[in-house]
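Minimal example, chain plus 2-(butylsulfanyl)adenosine.
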Amino acid sequence: MSRTEDIKRIQELSKSLLEHVQDEPFLLRHISQLRECICFHENRYYVMNDPLIADVEFDQLYKLLEKIEATHPTLVTPDSPTQRVGPGIAKQFNTVQHLVPMLSLENSYNADDLLEWDRKARELSKLDELQYCVEPKFDGASISLVYENDLFKRGATRGDGVAGEDITLNLKQIKSIPLSAPFSKYGIQQAEIRGEVLMNKKSFQSFNEQLIEQNLPPLANPRNAASGSLRIKDASIVSKRNLEAFIYHIAYLHFENNEKEILSHSNSLEMLWELGFRSPVQEKKVFKGIQAVIAFCKDFEEKRDDLPYEIDGLVIKVNELALQEKLGMTTHHPRWAIAYKFKARQATSKLLQVEFQVGRTGSITPVAKIQPVPIGGVTVASISLHNQDFINEKDIRIGDTLLVERAGDVIPYIVKSFPELRNGNESKIQFPTQCPVCKTALIKPEEEAVWRCPNDLCDAQVVERMIHFTSKDAMDIRGLGDANIRKFHELGWLKNIPSIYELPFDELKRMEGFGAKSVTNLQEAIEKSKQQPLYRLINALGIRYVGETTAKTIAQAIDHLLDLSKMNLDELQQIEDVGVKVADSIHQYFSKKENIEMLKGLESLGLQLNSIKKQSSGGSLSGKTFLFTGTLNQLKRSEAEQMVEDNGGKILSGVSSKLDYLIVGEDAGSKLEKAKKIASIQILDEDGFLKLIG
Ligand code: IVH
């Protein structure tokens, strides 16, 4: 999409527009250039993943356009970047016919399947060897987009393949889908293109964390999150879901003049990229002959978890388009493509019994104990059933056969039960009326889905609060895992959070199983945690609805933790992302005398209650990008990454030309090899990094 001369022109244009913020006649004369700049930068950011201006500068340009359009509504064009966020509430989704039916792919699972498919394709095409293009099989929701006269006209779900639901408004919220694309440059008047909408793993994880914080059951996998998001009636909610779209197929083209011939599938991916779509040009690989494809497929399955998004396999396509046409299709599938599916991340197992666990906020969670079953390399024996509604909705009974899924790093999830496999010995799950630990009568606030133990001093809650406090994303006290916390609680050493900082180390040294070295390590880890930044402490307190993300915005908004005790509900809601529910929960927490006493106690023990503000710009690493690979010796990976961010730098997820520094630990692998081939990347070891950061 962007050639050097375009980049230079746009950079200069962006600069000059920003210099004329107050000059309305100038801006009016240049409104189409302003739009062009914004579209260009959206493409660099959302499609190419390689932005060329700072976020604040982009926001300035965008706000400028919004302002001019507000005062001159007649100048608004349908493909203006401001038009993504329309009025946006759909009453229902209309059914629309696809211009060309959306076919599905035949599946293959092993080398033999691929050999057989290749044999047939060679036989039909009368060739000895075929060229194949291999690309990820994106595990999301499939979409079909129609562009007419360069404008994004309509987008639809797959539906039954012939007709789908019109979800145009929702798709306009996805920034990697351009509102206009210069098809006319190729003489194309109308195009129907296909792709997949995804939620990447990171966004999915934080989306699920938010659901859990609200006591809602999390979703099984990013695919469900993506397809569910596309069916939301209010487009403004969709825009907050961080969805992405990959476009991998041109289904139909109508030329208004000379037809430009596209020769191969890989050419069509390149053309889509040129047009501004996020097609898998970088991810695709072209091979001669099926043997090389088979080797690649086997190798790639190992790397599945390294990608930032979920894939469930690879798609192998005959590269030459003339050959694709010759091979044609069966009633269901094209003969020129096949999916190579990776090992399933689902399995069936029996529900043996249900235990009820008490969480740190007193919530009672039913946990299914199942016949242990391996899924994706991990044995699953225990799975959350979330709450009574979840159990009712899925109709789960003790003795049932269940379908269990474990997608990537995602927590295992019960997809469904199989009532048809029951033999009559199954029993309903009985919810307790008393706390299984302290026997206090349980309560269920009307608006909530979970039962709760209202006793703050319930042993289970006390222990869970300490486990959360010390956990990796909170105060990160290594060596004080769940088992030790439980043991020390039983011994009477750990009664509450402050007691973590008063552990009797001398007695501990005399205990069986604790060597002098491990006790010293633990002592050091506890001491070090006192310096953790405030947002970690806020997260560690376990205030309801306040997870890591909210903790970060709160820490940015205050100077000292106890400032929160002086704020009323209105003031709390002024903090970014803090709504009524969160404000109410924070207010309740800080109205309790015992909590204030505890926090003062922690401060006198040396914990950091002051907020050290992160600089939004500046810092010695400002504008520089980093990636860590291999095992670091002196620093934890998370610590090193935090240091980069604290100094204004940015962490990237992969090696590319936009990477400035690769920091290499022990046993570094393919990332190092790749980085060596890109001259602009500086490769440093851990010492070099520490020196750089000063
Ligand atoms: S090609 C006519 N390529 O997998 C061929 N499909 O049953 C059109 N999918 O419905 C499909 N990644 O939703 C193709 N790189 C990729 C894909 C892909 C994911 C989905 C697509 C399709 C299903 C196969």
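The two ends are 39 Å apart (CA to CA). The mean pLDDT is 91.
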